[in-house]
Known about the structure:
Beta-Lactamase; 5-stranded antiparallel beta sheet; alpha+beta; 13 helices; 23% strand; single chain
Amino acid sequence: xGSQPTEALLxxxxxxxxxxxxxxxxxxxxxxxxxxxxxxxxALDAGLHxxxxxxxxxxxxxxxxxxxxxxxxxxxGIDSSSLTAPPEFNFTSVSNDGFLGERIVRSPxxxxxxxxxGRLPFADLCTVPIPIRSYLSVPVRSRAGKSLGCLxxxxxxxxxFTSDSEDLVATIASQAAVAIDNLRLADSLTHEIxxxxxxxxxxxxxxDRLRQALDAAQLGTWTWDRSTDLLDLDERAADLFHAxxxxxxxxxxxxxxxxxxxxxxxxxxxxxxxxxxxxxxSAEYRVESSDGIQTWVSASxxxxxxxxxxxxxxxxxxxxDITVRKTQENALRQSEKLAATGRLAATxxxxxxxxxxxxxxxxYLSRTDxxxxxxxxxxxxxADSELARVAQIAQQTLGFYRDTTRPVEIKLNDLLHGVVDxxxxxxxxxxxxxxxxxxxxxxxHGLQGEIRQVFxxxxxxxxxxxxxxxxxxxxxxxxxxxxxxxxxxxxxxxxWDQGSGxxxxxxxxxxxxxFTTKLSVGTGLGLWVTRGFVEKHxxxxxxxxxxxxxxxxxxxxxxxxxxxxxxxxLSGTESRLPV
Length: 579
């Protein structure tokens, strides 16, 4: 609450000089006050001295359309100990004019005023009635003309308030109204600033949450301006498109630079459909880095419309790396194809067995017939040998598809000899020899069909290493098997070829699905499946390779004698792809 200017503090002088000084001091105090209580008290006390009243009050205007209520806010000249509970102001025709801000009311003797017909304004304030005759009420109005309240003064004698008193109190009321307006404006600005700060804090929090969500989903964001064809990419989107973040680049230039040639027409078609039909833009395509590595991305966006609400002027959207998803989809399709092929091969092998048995019996009968000439006997022996080979191939084919659901003992010596025999003709036709250096009794526990497929894949790759060499050359494939004794007993199988070796650029990716160096011949699944089966059996696989003379590649497979979790039933053995 501000200090109260009193006449005792003013220097001696004429009454007008004292009043002028009081007005100036009151204006300064009102300008410095920062609370409604202080403003009202300073104005009320100054008015009390300027009009020589013995009691004053400020009533706060609380008017609405349905209920008119004027609440006592401040008092001056009355001992607070004599006050009763502050009542609502008596609404009379006299006070009505003052409170509604229509005019100033000054009465020399309100008890004889014909316009007054009610209780006196201060009648209910004290336990002992206050005698009132002279009455003065001055409305306090804002710059906009709105009534803020009313200064009311009274005196027990008649004819105390003069026109000068009225003017002085009106000046105080104007100063108080300005101070209250300024206070309200400051409060409004403070509230607005607080509201803006809260909105900014909420905006930052929302932006942070959005960024966290984008980071969690590994989404990049971008915007596109249709009129200029310019793209703006954030850091993650720029990384996916091999560009610089927030550096202007046209969509056409970026498409030509990074989008795979096979997919460029698709992206153009997707954009054209979006611009014609609206809705949500969506496209999946491959982008290619400068070193030739391709990744799949999925881009989606929503339209920005012109003020007319119909024309699309741009887009805002997100982009995500979906390479893993595409790889899994392709792996699933290949797995289904492999499973279907396996079932077909098993069916064919099973059906071949029946006529094979009949033909074998017929050849046996012919060979045992004494009337068959010797040259024919030799031909029948060759035919019998070839039929035995066909029968072995049929059994091998069934073995690849049909597997047990629990680990069994696998004699690797027999299994490796059988796999080599299976590909013997292929090696002979390409002038490739094969040596086996196996310790006796190489046995493990596992799924026989999967282990057979592991070594079949490695031997086929060794054969192809000669086929796809720059110049076909004869050579040898060495297979060596050893026991490994230690904390976990294991078996080591090494398959070493003298082929062309694995190029340096391919060595980091040979175990990746759908990666192949065999051009149109390979599927890119062999080594991926092989590593999955080896790791499924608790083993490891590694390689060493050399492309300079003497070239070649060595694969080493280490398998534990006992398969982990061998006591558990295995399921899904028809699938040749690891999960």
